[in-house]
Amino acid sequence: MPGDRGWGIVATMSESSGTGTEREVDVVVVGGGSTGENVADRAHRGGLADVVVVENELVGGECSYWACMPSKALLRPTAALAAARRLPGAAAAVTGEVDVQAVLDRRTSFTSGYDDSSQVEWVEGAGLSLVRGTARLDGERRVVVTAEDGQVTTLVARHAVVVASGSEPTTPPVDGLGDVPHWGSREATSATEVPRRLLVLGAGVVGLEMATAFRRLGAEVTVVGGSAVLGAFEPRAGELVADALREEGVEVVVGDRAASAARDDGEVRLTLSSGRELVADELLVATGRRPRTTDLGLETVGLEPGAALDIDASGRVRGVEGTWLYAAGDVTGLAPLTHMGKYAARAVGDVVAARARGEAQGEQAPWSPYATTALRQAVPQVVFTDPEVASVGLTEEQAREAGVDVRVVALDIAVAGSSLHADGYTGWACLVLDDARGVVVGATFVGQDVAELLHSATVAVVGEVPLDRLWHAVPSYPTISEVWLRLLEAAGL
Questions:
Q1: What was the pLDDT predicted at 266?
Q2: Predicted structure pTM score
Q3: Which of 187, 449, 474, 488 fits 183 for a cystine, CB–CB 3.0-4.6 Å?
Q4: Which cystines does this chain contain (predicted)?
């Protein structure tokens, strides 16, 4: 680590017995994932010298080792293969099958072999300090960190404590499931071999991405989706993804729920509410996540353990006196996505530094540099299934619930660019319009490689660009983005 940069190190009563120390620093960031790293970096760059990151697992967090990066590394090789097979000429050059071990090895390379030394090097090179251990709040501005060897360090923050502890998977109330060894998202993305039969409980983003990956790597896959597929998105998006999975041989069960689970002789048996029994070698439970706040010591500052941290626009935690406790990322329950965590982190790190300088006091206006407005109004997300789903802003249902004067424009993606992109291209696009204001408040695209359309939609939503002005944003020909022209024509322009 770099030098102590002027840390105040104060002996405590426990230190005299050799059990702990107390340090006064500028900022304590609880959680060394991508959100925590960005909070710390921005606060330090804003002029706060003594910024400490506390992490009890791998520095870099869920995204680097068990979520975004390894999951997309599992998906990308077979997506490229599928794309080649949709193009006559290219398809003729595909003469072999996917090299499963090479895919798994490349996945592991993106996790650095589950070694965080390069991330630690970045933290130290950025002028931050890392403390390893489990963190708990201990009253105002105090964080007690217990290392793996039992050593205790108490960090006292002059300016702020920022909670960026992320989220953890939830387990549904299925009889017997708690006694059945099963995969969560971590086990799926770090798997060292492909099971012959995989059951996926949950038809959200994680469940469908992993169903896609493992089916294309050779597993027999069944997805049990409860009431809907991709239920948080436009219904048509879920329908198209489910259809594509079925075409690839995945059984997608909708309208039937898991009732009980058991493991016998190495096989997982999942009984559905209809009485049907499904059997597999592995079970992936991907039914959602919750903020990781149970063991953070929230009760010491008057907050409820286990609940999401309620924040104002600047990331300050409500219900705690003063402006010293902040939160960013999944722990807030808002937009639990890596890019949104980093976005919130930038605002929080900047506002902590600004307030330490005597600036940015009081409530922050929407869209100011110190506000996290997009967490509630303009969240972009890509589901890396095949077809991809890319969405931003409000769905039709969400817009109606919010009282928006809704008009929806939707059509199949059938433009010159899509027909060149792949034979038999199947896609769909939808704009949710605020008709009273003449702006886009939500957009969804479904199809091969539509993720690259998403940022233009995000700019339109965030910038509240009037439709008559969007008409003059001419899409290049022949690209899939020509669908923008068709959507605006359908909107009456």
A1: 87
A2: 0.93
A3: 187
A4: 63-68
